[in-house]
Amino acid sequence: MKTYFQFLLGLLLLSQASWAQTKPSASTTATKPLSQRMADSFIAEYPDSLGIAKSKAARWGYEQGVMLTALERVGQRSGDPRYFNYVRKIVDYSVQPDGTITGYKPDDYSVDNIPTGRSVLTLAQRFPQETKYRKAADLLRQQLTTHPRTKEGGFWHKKRYPNQMWLDGLYMLEPFYAEYSKIYNQPANFDDIAKQFALIEKYCVDPKTGLLYHAYDESKEQKWANKQTGQSPNFWSRGMGWYAMALVDVLDYFPKSHPQRQQLVKDLQRLAPVLVKFQDPKTGGWYQVTDQGTRAGNYIETSSSSMFVYAIAKGVRLGYLDKKYAAVAQKGYQGLVKNFIETAPSGALAMNGTVSVGGLGGDPYRDGSYEYYLSEPIKKNDFKGVGPFIMASLEMEMAKKGL
C-alpha cells in the first residue's frame, strides 16, 4: 500500500512539474491575440463553474449563454480544444442524462433561459450518440411552441412581463430558434423569426433619431409605457446591442432564398449609420443612455460598446455593411482596449465599465427613466461585457488578417 501511494505521489509531482514547464509566462501570454488572452483570463477566474458568484455552481441563464458562445468561437478560431472542453464541462453541470436541465423551469416562459441552448446545439452536433444534448435542445425549442405572445405574434419577454417585447429578447430567442430550425430542417420557422424583428422595427424605432426604445408594452398598461405608443421612455445602449448582435447572428442561419432575409440586412443597414451618429468621438464608445452623452452622470458603457463593435465588424466582414464602417468598429474597439481593459502583472486581463443589469417593471419597480438606468451598479468582468468583448476581438482579429 505504501508503495502504491508513493507511486501516486510521484505521478502527482511529475504532472505538477510538467504543468509548471508548460504554463505560459506573462510574456508568452502577451503574444496571444486579445480574444484568447481574455478567454484564458476568464477561465482562470472561473475554472470549475460559471456561476455569477464564484462560490456558487454554474447556473442556467443568458449570462452563461453569451460567455459560452464567446468561448466556443475562440476554440473555433484557435483550434485549441481547451475552450470547447470548458464549454462542454459547464453545460454538463446542468444538462442531465435524460435531457432535463437543472434550474430550468419551462413554465416560467423566460427568454433568458434560451441562449445557452446554442452551446447545447453545438454539443448535439458533435456528440450525436449522447442523446441528452438533442433532448435538452428539444426541451428549449418546446418552450417556444407554447411561449405567450402579443396579439401580433411577438414573444413576450417573460411570463411575468405580459404583453411586452424587449430588445434583449431578440438575442435571447432568435439565434437559437434560427440555428435549431436550420439544423433540424424546420424552414417554416423562419417566417416567425423574421416577424419578431419586424415587430421590433415597427414598435420600438424612434422616427426622429432612428434609435430603438428598450421595449414596448402592447397593452400600454405599464407605468413605464407611453400611453399612445406603448414605448419605454429611453434608449438603453445594451438593449440595442443585444438587438444588433441578434441581427448579425440570425443571418448566419437564415436561408438565402427566404424572402425576408434581405429585410434583416436592411434593418442592420438602417441601424449602422444611427450608431455612428451616437458614437462618442473622444473614446469611440457608446453611452449607457445612448442619446444623452452630455448629461450629468452618463458614462461610456462597455458591454454595449463591445456589442456594437462586434455587430458592425461582422456586418462588414460578411458584406452586409459598406466597408467604410470598418473604421467605426476599429475606433470603438481601440477605445475599449485603451480605456477599459486592465492587464495584471501575470498577463491576465480584466474588463471594466459594464452595467450589471437593465430592465423594466418588476419589484422594486424599474420605471425606465434616465435616473433608473444610471442607478444600476457598474461591474468588473461582468459576463455580459466580457463575452461580447471576446467576440468583438475575434472580429477585429479577422479583419486585421483580411478574412
From TrEMBL:
Pfam families the record matches: Glyco_hydro_88 (PF07470)
Keyword Signal: yes
Assigned keywords, A-Z: Hydrolase, Signal
GO terms assigned for molecular function: hydrolase activity
InterPro entries: 6-hairpin_glycosidase_sf, 6hp_glycosidase-like_sf, Glyco_hydro_88, PolySaccharide_Degr_Enz
Origin superkingdom: Bacteria
Leader sequence segment: 1-20
An example Gene Ontology biological process: carbohydrate metabolic process
Designated name of the protein: Glycosyl hydrolase family 88
Natural source organism: Hymenobacter crusticola
